[in-house]
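Appendix C reproduces, verbatim, an entry submitted by the partner laboratory led by Prof. M.T., so that reviewers can inspect both the input and the predicted structure.
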Amino acid sequence: MNLNNEIIELRCKQCKQRLMDYMVTGNDEAVVLQNITLKCWRCKRVLMLKKYTEGMIRMNSVKHTYRI
């Protein structure tokens, strides 16, 4: 699959609500989504993303879905 067209969904770990989509760039060592705050509107959980690399997100995703 071409990495330029790959999209990974970021979902809430508790309620499985879709938070956002991330488009893969192909640089596995780069820190992505640093200091981004996401709020789940369903369970009211607030997430502050720090030190997430693209390689970590790609390796731990299941069927293009990563639960935070």
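Residues 3-67 form one domain. Additional entries are available on request from the coordinating office.
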